[in-house]
Predict the structure.
Amino acid sequence: MKKRILILTGILALGIASHFYINQNYIKKEKKIASQKMISQKVQEKEVEIEEKKDEIKEAVVKVENKYKWNLNDIYNNWSLWEKDLIQMEKMMEEIKEYKGKISENSEIFTKFLKLQEKVDILSYKVYLYPNMKKDLNGGDQKAGENLQRIITLFSQYSTSTAWVTPEILTIPRETMVSWIEKNQDLKPYEFNLMELYRLQGHILDAKSEKLISYYGQYQGAPKSIYSELSTTDIKFGEVEFKDGTKLPMTYGNYSKIMATNLDQGDRKKAFDTHYKTFEDYKNTYGAIYRSSLQRDFAVAQTRNYSSTLEAALEQNNIPTSVYENLIEVAKTNSEPLKRYARLRKEILGLENYHSYDGSIPLVDFQKEYEYDDAKQYVYDSIAPLGQDYSSKMKTAISDGWIDVYESKGKRSGAYSVGVYGVHPYMLMNYNKTLDNVFTLAHELGHTMHTLLSSENQPFATHGYTIFVAEVASTFNERLLLDHMLKNTTDPKEKIALLQQAIRGITGTFYFQSLLADYELQAHRLVEDGKPVTPDVLSKIMSDLFREYYGDSVETDKIMEILWARIPHFFNSPYYVYQYATCFASSSVFYDRITNESYSAKEREEALAKYLTLLKSGGNDNPMNQLKKAGVDLSKRETVEAVTKDLDKLLDQLEEEINLIK
Ligand SMILES: [Zn+2]
């Protein structure tokens, strides 16, 4: 997971983010997903809150050494320094307003304006993230909560008061802008973002229409908020009594836990049926919410002159729709390794019938605990193939004060990496010594290194990278860690657990997300073609997809087809999940070219150099171009097929290891 900060200031935000429909939130939380981890942030947080309350009495005062905690003094030593920056920022925001009506006059005024705006943007990272991160460490921190609210209100006002910026920039003819940039070196760093504005110009309407549309901004967020209320506040999950007599409500959290740990198939079936029945019970409401979300997307696409909802979603990053179509086509037609894994699991687990609820339990009993300091060392050693410079930067990234390691009272759940511009990246963990957590550490450090390299090598204007490339850096490092740990263990059970971890990455991140992406496209096309959208129609798409992906390797459980109602991403951010799959595919290609010894040493070196250049390039080009420059072309079948072949290889290894312990 990577926490991305999207502050609605600056050219990029005003020009690109704000013209795209709704983004009332200032932060987009992006999640690392394995299929069983598809829990909306909110749901997860709620459950954590509840659990914490229950545990209150048990909670002993655990003293965590400072070296395992964030040192937020690197940002501000105290609130009064924060306050000072806030005041300065407000002052600059006022100054920006004075430029209204003047920025198209000449390149000097325009440059001055951009530089001022940039100063606000730079400062906003620190000013926003300081209270935000304090609150993440302790949800009960009142001061942090209040100051966070202040800053969010300020950003929201600023966003409204600078709504004129993009339209006014676009009154400057493109040719004029090009000649300004040519003659004025100070404008160079902004070139890419400025040209992006012109690229998307055809989708920005005249001032009158834009104003009209803006009245519907909040209304467009209705499906999302209704979904969230239904799924977190109003929903009532049924209770299950297990064989050992324990009773649990089948919430998202409990359900995932049972799926991953309960070794009794009967128990898992009960949990599965009960959890999914809740969504089935509400299917008409979920269907109506989703239908309105689809209708909104279609309305936005038509209003903004896009030929389809898919094009509207992808155009922002200049991703051709063929990339999306290629992905879902290749994943679906290359699902043989996925079926092979299901059959293999069935055999290893000794099950007569294999169901979707059998897909997450471990193949072997492996409970090893990994101390944090060892985990850190593993991750550090694993990235050696990336070279000396990368290693020495990694050393800094894992040093004291950058990672908040352990769980503590009031701390938010999950893990993320966030760059505080002008300071350094920080990572939040809830380290619990499991193998999965060792991989999470490698994953977040992958993001952190990407942030470090981009910030060092790019001007501020282009230091931020898109999600489309973000997960390449993180999954690549996970893959290196797998190699390293496989090499360094002789315990067959550990090897199997490691392989299972890697396989889950491919089945959960690549295949499952492609399946979901396929569903989204089909659902949107219903509306585009004027066809009825009913819960049964949506469920039919899902069940057909399951058949295409899993064939008869997994038994059909009819209730599973309601899955579309329990995926928050469908309701919160349409056409988003495909990026997990494309990133995974890209990462597989890089991994192969850099480590596969069937390539010559020179070829591997060149591949590595290109990969590092990608990590250093932030957001200096459209992501597809960035990847192409690094040698990965996602519009080609072979690129996407690489990951499916990778799975086959891992399955070979798994079979070998299993045979050893038979
Ligand atoms: Zn991530």
